[in-house]
Amino acid sequence: MALLVLASTVSWTVDKHICMGKVMDISLFAHADDCGMDMEMEKSCCDDESFTLQGQHDLKISFENFDLDQQVFLVSFVQTYFQLFEIDSQEPVTFGEYNPPPLIRDVQVLDQTFLI
User: Fold this and answer.
1) Which residue among 2, 33, 85, 97 sits deepest, i.e. has the most Cβ atoms within 10 Å of its Cβ?
2) DSSP per residue over 35-95, as a string?
3) Side by side, which strands form the sheet with 22-28?
4) Which Pfam family, any one of them, does this sequence belong to (predicted)?
5) What per-residue confidence (pLDDT) applies to 40?
């Protein structure tokens, strides 16, 4: 996600040097190197092309830009999403005041039957 934001906000400049119809050098963010042929000739065989792709500069999203249906959906989605991670409190113990029945004899030890 961070790479997508970075790629959409940076302005990209591509510079090409074309000599005799063939691309000799391509450069991003800087000037492309020439092929070394003399540019002093009356009719030059070389040409430089560049284009710039402007990045997005306004990244602030305002809640007021959404219409009512989108606001209702966003609020209900966030509310239900956070309820998924809500930690339930400890369940109430309904028989907490009562003592367990007294253990008169251990039937499993007497009969030698154990669940394994």
Assistant:
1) 33
2) -S--S-SSS-SEEEEEEEEPPP------GGGS-HHHHHHHHHHHHHHHHHTPPPPPPP-TT
3) 22-28, 12-19, 46-53
4) DUF8199
5) 61
